[in-house]
Amino acid sequence: MSGKDIPLFELAGEERTATPLPRVRRGVTFDSSLRPDEKAIRRFWSNVVRGPGSACWLWVGPISTPDGYGRFSWQVGGHRRTVSAHRFALMIATGKEIPQGLVGEHFCCEPLCVRAGSYHVRLTTQAENISWAVDRGRHAGSSPGSGSAGRALRSQLVRAAVRNGWDEDALRAARDFNVLDENQSRLW
Hints:
188 residues, alpha+beta, two-stranded antiparallel sheet, 26% helix, 23% strand, HNH nuclease domain-containing protein, His-Me_finger_sf
């Protein structure tokens, strides 16, 4: 048995093993360096509802749990990649990968926002991102961010509020979602 094999069980003295899945499934290679093509960019924007004026542009595609961020996957020639929707928006805006050591910060404090710019999603360091979150009351040292337990549900409510077009009243109600833990303050 190689070091990569995982013993599952023994049956009548015969050991059964499983080998971990390779990075290739059904002919698709998961490629963290895959660049978006025009088709992927068009499909990305088809999952965005643009708010009026200087409002957020909200992702209405898949949302991950438990962080509540949008997720976007694309495939080119048998290679596939998945990233956070706001990171994909920054890749489009800058025309390149997010540089090592930088993160996409939601200055607007809306996890579904994909509007690249100074007052929405911007490039910053993780230290600056955490500092902003602490200043806004969304993060407290090493403990989970305020309201993080309900973040994915809140994002799902926000997505539902604008999925068929911008609806300020429905959006306000979704953003006012109250966390289930009474000891935590609201995320926004």
